[in-house]
Write a structure and sequence with these properties.
The structure is a single chain. This protein is an alpha/beta fold and about 375 residues long. Among the domains are: about 130 residues, NAD(P)-binding Rossmann-like Domain (Rossmann fold, 3-Layer(aba) Sandwich); about 90 residues, no CATH class. About 35% of the residues lie in helices and about 20% in strands. It contains 14 helices and 17 strands. The longest helix is centred in the C-terminal third of the chain and has 19 residues. Keywords: FAD, Flavoprotein, Isomerase. Its EC number is 5.4.99.9. This is UDP-galactopyranose mutase.
């Protein structure tokens, strides 16, 4: 008899497995894939280069609690991610900053000048409801067309005018020359990779791992008291209200006989090519190797569910499933797929740590 059967071995499930195991509970964690670590799984390819199987995952958080918690399972390599966008034959910093504007328009603006310059370009919109509204309201149509519209259309398969404001609100505009993609207090990569972090997180005598297994096949045959589910919430309920829309990605890897392929970790292609971006892994991992591996990302509508699509009608559909979920006895839903939220890694960790404390409080044992 297991105390908990956990479906899904990404951050959402693994964090709960670790916390519950250390609270004395017995855990069986299962995953359909042949590996642990979910979408953060990394491995050494045939050339010996450490790559992320499901696209680049760069860790960043403002939460000292989360960083300290994960530090129990890994040492870190300091890394601040930088992204360039290929626009009109130039590679320009994104998020848009002072350097971006000066290079694009041939200006010599100062930080004090930039605010009024952007105000002059902005087309104020009220209310701000869509992703298009967010950008045009802040920087105007020209920058919107050059940096956001094409990229968003490729990434989401929808025009920004059809997407919730939260999508482009994630990418700020800066009046200084800070060219870091993230500004969080803690920015680092697991020194030996995410898979090694997960191995340590799950290395507890109370945790049993079963891979290439479907939790549905085990529910009736493996005795357990409770289920923690981190897969797509609509799949759990057999799509009774219809499928929740997701975006997927086709990852195309290429290894080259070069020390370096591009000048930064990621380059975005907002207006050209079918792919959205190219990432070179050696920037992220710090690995020294005579060759290099990059990944091209081609968004698509079918395939593994990676990104919940932020639109009101999708949220309304999710809320119907959420009502069903709240009626389930001894079943907990968590993670990006289980709660249909476009979460970063640290937010998923925070969600599962919060759920653990809730379980402990409800059962009246120390969490």
């Amino acid at each position: 008899m297991y105390d908990y059967l956990i479906a899904g071995c990404g951050f959402a499930g693994a964090v709960l497995a670790e916390r519950l195991a250390n609270a004395g509970k017995s855990i069986l964690i299962v995953d359909k894939r042949e590996h642990i670590a979910g979408n953060t799984y990394d491995y050494y390819n045939n050339e010996g280069i450490l790559v992320h199987k499901y696209g680049p995952h760069i860790f960043h958080t403002n939460s000292e609690e989360i960083f300290t918690y994960l530090s129990k399972f890994t040492s870190w390599r300091a890394y601040e991610h930088r992204v360039l966008a290929s626009v009109e034959g130039q590679l320009l910093p994104i998020p848009i900053n002072l350097t971006t504007i000066n290079r694009l328009y041939g200006k010599r603006l100062t930080s004090q000048d930039l605010g009024s310059f952007l105000d002059g370009m902005a087309e104020k919109r009220k209310p701000v409801l869509t992703s298009e509204d967010v950008v045009v309201n802040a920087v105007g149509k020209d920058l919107y067309e050059k940096f956001f519209r094409g990229y968003t259309q490729k990434q989401w398969g929808l025009d920004p005018s059809e997407l919730d404001a939260s999508v482009t609100a994630r990418v700020p505009t800066r009046t200084n020359t800070d060219d870091r993609y993230f500004t969080d207090e803690f920015q680092a990569m697991p020194k030996h990779g995410y898979t090694e972090l997960f191995k340590k997180m799950l290395s507890h005598a109370n945790i049993h791992i079963m891979l290439q297994a479907d939790y549905r096949d085990l529910i009736a045959t493996v005795p357990h008291r409770r289920l923690i589910y981190t897969g797509p919430i609509d799949a759990y309920f057999d799509y009774c209200y219809g499928k929740l829309p997701y975006r997927s990605i086709d990852f195309q890897f290429e290894t080259m006989d070069l020390d370096c392929y591009q000048e930064t970790g990621t380059i975005n292609y907002p207006t050209s090519n079918l792919y959205t971006r190219i990432t070179e892994f050696k920037y992220l991992t710090g690995q020294s190797h005579k060759k290099t591996t990059v990944v091209f990302e081609y968004p698509k509508s079918e395939g593994d569910p990676y990104y919940p699509i932020p639109r009101k009608e999708n949220q309304d559909l999710y809320n119907r499933y959420k009502e069903l979920a709240e009626m389930q006895k001894d079943v907990f839903f968590t993670g990006r797929l289980g709660t249909y939220k476009y979460y970063n890694m640290d937010q998923v960790v925070a969600q599962s740590l919060t759920l653990f404390k809730k379980i402990a409080k409800e059962d009246d044992w120390e969490g």
